[in-house]
Design goal:
The complex is a heterodimer. By secondary structure, chain A is α+β, with helices and mostly antiparallel strands. Helices cover about 35% and strands about 25% of the residues of chain A. In chain A, helix 10 runs antiparallel to helix 11 and helix 11 runs antiparallel to helix 12. The termini of chain A are far apart. Chain B is α+β, with helices and mostly antiparallel strands. Chain B contains 20 helices and 27 strands. The N terminus of chain B is likely disordered. Classes of the chains: A alpha+beta, B alpha+beta. Chains A and B meet through helix 12 of A and helix 3 and helix 20 of B.
Chain lengths: ~280, ~750
């Protein structure tokens, strides 16, 4: 039997150096990996502990963007005043991740890299057009989050790369937002549907529309077709009902241990209607 | 009767074992180590639901040298878990009856290697078609248990229900279903067994009923009583889940220790515990009710069926209690209850708080709301028209002599929760646009205290009290503390009766080598029956000291212990034992299931207020009101805690907890996907006690522990149906289910 091994580098360059030499699974807060370990579903045995890497900590911003260090915990996000004001959907998502004990350990990059279709923060990040900074000893590259997921649990990341930061453009205006996590209970719950949407209206027209839903496809999705349909339109009953049809067509939920396909379609469309009718 | 009542100790002393639990001093079974040579055991289980075992294959590629391996052939005595029927083997010898049925046992000193070894065992099995549902089992799709798949049947008859269908204004029929439920005790099951050629077998473990384990282990090894010793470890919750099943685990652990001649520890992890131990019986109940337009119920025909799982365990007793309570606290002239518990190829179901009543109560109390709606009166009017009153009779023909005024209980409950104000407010707000709808609903029900019928006669429980050399009273019972507060209650009862301080009373954990058999720790009997015996024993201690002239009628605690010391110098240690005696007025006929089913009942009305999000079909219970008449409340804090905890457990049963089945096996055997409510999901729970009847139990205390598991599910579902005008008739009602029910009213 292979025993579990964990390497703990002192700094980022040390970590990247180790990762360039052998395939290791990054271990940060451990809130997903520990559960998989207990379930017996964790295949990885060799880990690199990045929890202490100071280079990956902290939330900073410029006039144009926020930069969230990969190790930013959901508790830090919850408590951040400017994030509350500028990226309220991300803060709402952070409040609904697991429960407080988990929010103290779970990191934003971990939520992304676990690649669950039900990741609570991802629909919000997709609506905010977030990008990831991936770093290896060789280079640093920026990948838009919308392009990061290639399929169920498949990501555009190499084994020598680490997610070092999440970059989020500073929202310019004050868009209308809608974030609803639907789980089996009010805390410690994995999403059945996680709905995030953001619109900007100008003289009755939708000039910007972004919709993202989790748990309705192998990866969290931005619903570009539905967005395109709504852009530059003024809402009325028939537009709303066409948009709902478009959305129902664009999501691809399945029956699984947590819910049914039918329920996920119904709830997604109900929430979407509720949002559009509130505008 | 009690004379020296010390008011100071009467209410809410702190939980006596609380500090030890809080500080981590309490030793649970997995905290215990028998050093040097302890082996870790594991259970090898069937991968198929039904079949004939032909061969167990231990892979050649694995080194089995240091392993202890036990199969059915190694059993020295009888391969039967002795409970009621003799159908349940410790290890499969040929017939496999569920996925998870234990086939072999292995043990090794390296815990990781034990887990690894399980992957190197396979089987040759001739598979047979399994049965997974009540209907398939009753329809005999396959015969899987004895001649007809039926573990037990009862037919309870009062009057002649078949004579009244034609004369009734309405006959209303509907079927109700309830699902299986996990106990979710905090501590998983576990045992340590130590074999000694001279002393026999000693088993330490987490269990509710040490003497049940004792009874099961003797025939397994063909050992006499004094060579089997069962010692209670700390228990991290049980809820009935550690009533029958620990006998099997203890047997497994003991078989390994016997073969290895070394101590063995067998601890289930959460996944194994959820997958293989007992659950609440799923049920299917059809009510056919004859009722006049004024709401007078003329007759009830109730078909009550439980899914017992693969083996009989104590299903017949669960069925009996469920059936006896199936017609509720209503005085109806004509009742027929046809009750059956049948076999399926799923893990055996067993005891669980409420013991069959949550199932039959759900069906009845939802059905009465359905009947009221059909005939156009309010649920309250229907109940009020039919409630039992003093000198009325229940389904078994039992005349209720105690002071029961349900009209008043109803008035009080509705006043406490502002029922009418809420109802009209919700009716108004539900008509407004918006996706949140509110509802209010209630249930009325009772729960019998103690064992059913002649059960207490058969048990003939014994308790003892002794005075130790350092001036403490030691309580000797086999009743176990599993978080329900029994240590504290016993301490209070003894301290109050003797007029001494609670700190002078010791309640050690049971050890069958030391304590008499005071029966199992189940059935709301611990306070009422065992507590009463302790009160009697305490009075008898006092009587001995006063009778022998060592003590005056009026005394201080100091004088009491001084007298006990003087007595012991003359006569030896002061002791008193008492045994249960039928009070004489309890008449029960086992063959017809008629008569005084219980010496007394606790009576209750519960109200739930809910909000439903019609976008997501989620139900939130906002407020809950629980009013009950329970005789004397011994400890208000513990009693309130029991009710609140039970209510939340029952809300889980109603709207959260669902087993996802795959071929008769649970798929969601983990805490991420078997969803129980968290504190955020808990409503505000207001608890009210009425204390009218003090004829039974210690100073009049009746049972409370099971009530809060019985009533909440129908109250919650009635509230949902009230809010949405739906006809929800099955639990667990998850949002996915409610979506379907709501589509039905749209049509």
């Amino acid at each position: 039997m292979d025993k579990i091994s964990v390497e703990t580098p002192k700094d980022l360059s040390g970590a990247l150096e180790i990762m360039s030499k052998s395939k290791l699974t990054p271990l940060a807060g451990g809130t997903d990996l520990m559960v998989q370990q207990e379930f017996g579903s964790l295949k990885a045995k060799q880990f690199i502990n990045i929890w202490n890497l100071n280079e990956l900590k902290g939330i900073t911003h410029t006039n144009d963007s926020f930069r969230l260090g990969a190790l930013t915990t959901f508790m830090e996000i919850r408590k951040h005043k400017l994030l509350k004001q500028k990226l309220p959907m991300l803060v709402q998502a952070a409040k609904l991740v697991g429960a407080i004990a988990i929010q103290n350990r779970a990191t934003i990059a971990g939520n992304i890299a676990n690649a669950s279709p039900a990741a609570d923060s991802v629909p919000a990040l997709l609506c905010y057009d977030a990008s990831l900074e991936l770093t290896s000893t060789q280079k640093k590259r920026i990948v838009p989050l919308k392009d990061f997921y290639l399929g169920y649990k498949k990501m555009d990341i190499q084994s020598d790369e680490l997610i070092t930061a999440i970059i989020i453009p500073m929202p310019k205006d004050n868009p209308t937002i809608y974030y609803q996590k639907v789980g089996a209970r009010l805390a410690l719950s994995i999403s059945k549907v996680c709905f995030a949407a953001l619109v900007q209206m100008q003289s009755g027209k939708l000039v910007d529309v972004r919709i993202s839903i989790g748990s309705i496809a192998p990866t969290p999705l931005r619903l570009y077709k539905t967005e395109d349909y709504l852009k530059q339109k003024k809402l009325n009953a028939s537009i709303i009902s066409n948009a709902i049809e478009q959305l129902a067509d664009e999501i691809k939920p399945i029956d699984d241990i947590r819910s049914s396909k039918e329920y996920r379609v119904k709830v997604s469309t109900n929430l979407f209607r509720n949002f559009l009718e509130s505008l | 009767m009690q004379k020296n009542l010390n008011i100071k100790v009467q209410n809410s002393i702190l939980r006596t074992e609380g500090p030890a639990k809080l500080s981590g001093k309490t030793k649970f079974i997995d905290d215990m180590r028998f050093p040097v040579d302890l082996l870790y055991g594991a259970t090898v289980r069937s991968p198929v639901a039904r079949g004939i075992l032909k061969k167990i294959v231990f892979s050649n590629e694995f080194d089995w040298d240091d392993f202890t391996i036990v199969t059915a052939k190694d059993i020295p005595g009888k391969n039967v878990v002795s409970i009621i029927e003799d159908d349940w083997p410790f290890l499969v010898s040929d017939k496999i009856n569920y996925i998870g049925d234990p086939i072999a046992l292995i043990a090794h000193h390296d815990k990781d290697l034990v887990a690894e070894a399980l992957n190197h065992i396979s089987f040759k099995i001739d598979e047979l078609p399994p049965v997974f549902s009540i209907d398939d089992s009753r329809n005999k799709k396959e015969i899987i248990w004895r001649s007809d798949n039926t573990f037990k049947s009862y037919l309870i008859k009062k009057g002649d229900v078949d004579s009244i269908w034609e004369s009734a204004d309405f006959v209303i029929e509907q079927t109700y279903e309830t699902g299986a439920q996990e106990h979710l005790y905090i501590e998983n099951n576990g045992m340590i067994a130590v074999w000694d050629d001279k002393a026999g077998i000693t088993i330490w473990g987490s269990m509710q009923c040490p003497y049940y384990v004792h009874n099961a282990i003797m025939p397994l090894f063909s050992l006499p009583a004094q060579k089997v010793r069962i010692i209670q470890a700390g228990i991290g919750g049980a809820f009935g889940g550690k009533e029958d099943f620990p006998s099997l685990i203890a047997g497994h652990c003991a078989l390994l220790a016997y073969k290895a001649k070394r101590p063995v520890k067998l601890i289930y992890n959460r996944r194994e515990d959820l997958a293989n131990t007992t659950r609440r019986h799923p049920s299917k109940t059809t009510h056919k009710t004859a009722v006049n337009k004024d709401g007078k119920i003329l007759g009830m025909d109730i078909d009550f069926a439980l899914d017992g799982g693969a083996y009989a365990t104590i299903s017949s007793v669960v069925l009996s209690r469920g059936a006896i309570h199936a017609a509720g606290p209503y005085d109806v002239d004509n009742i027929k209850i046809n009750a059956n518990v049948v076999a399926t190829n799923t893990p055996p179901n067993g005891a669980f708080r409420g013991f069959g009543v949550p199932q039959s109560c759900f069906a009845l109390e939802c059905h009465l709301d359905f009947v009221a709606k059909k005939i156009g009166i309010t649920p309250e009017q229907l109940r009020r028209k039919n409630f039992i009153a003093s000198n009325g009779s229940l389904a078994t023909g039992q005349i209720i002599r105690e002071n029961i005024d349900y009209q008043k209980l109803m008035d009080l409950t509705f006043k406490h929760c502002n029922f009418y104000e809420k109802l009209s407010e919700f009716n108004k707000s539900n008509r407004l646009p918006g996706h949140l709808k509110k509802g209010i609903g209630f249930s009325a029900f009772m729960h019998g205290g103690g064992f059913t019928g002649s059960g207490e006669d058969y048990l003939s429980s014994i308790v003892g009290l002794t005075v130790t050399e350092d001036n403490k009273i030691k309580v000797l019972t086999s009743s176990t503390e599993m978080g329900q507060g029994k240590n504290t209650i016993f301490t209070q009862i003894v301290a109050e009766t003797l007029n001494i301080s609670p700190t002078d009373v010791l309640v050690p954990k049971p050890d069958t080598a030391i304590v008499p058999n005071s029966g199992p720790t189940v059935a709301s009997r611990t306070t009422m029956i065992v507590g009463k015996l302790l009160e009697d024993a305490a009075n008898s201690l006092k009587d001995i000291l006063i009778g022998t002239n060592f003590l005056k009628q009026e005394y201080s605690a100091e004088e009491f212990f001084k007298a006990a010391k003087n007595y012991s110098e003359d006569f030896g240690t002061l002791k008193a034992y008492t045994q249960y005696k039928n009070p004489g007025n309890i008449k029960w006929d086992d063959s017809t299931h008629l008569g005084d089913a219980y010496p007394t009942y606790s009576w209750a009305i519960y109200v739930a207020e809910v909000t439903i999000n019609t976008l997501t079909y989620e139900t939130k219970v906002d407020n809950f009101t629980a009013l009950q008449e329970v005789g004397r409340v011994v400890n208000n804090t513990l009693a309130t805690g029991q009710i609140q905890g039970g209510v939340l457990q029952a809300i889980g049963y109603a709207i959260f907890e669902k087993i996802i089945w795959e071929k008769g096996q649970i798929k969601n055997n983990n805490l991420s996907n078997y969803v129980i409510p968290t504190s955020l999901d808990a409503p505000n729970i207001d608890v009210y006690f009425e204390q009218w009847n003090k004829e039974y139990g210690p100073q009049g205390a009746k049972g409370i522990g099971e009530l809060p598991m019985d009533g909440p599910a129908p109250a919650v579902i009635n509230a949902v149906n009230n809010a949405l005008n739906t006809n929800v008739n099955a639990i667990p009602m998850l949002p996915e289910n409610l979506m379907k029910y709501m589509e039905k009213i749209d049509e």
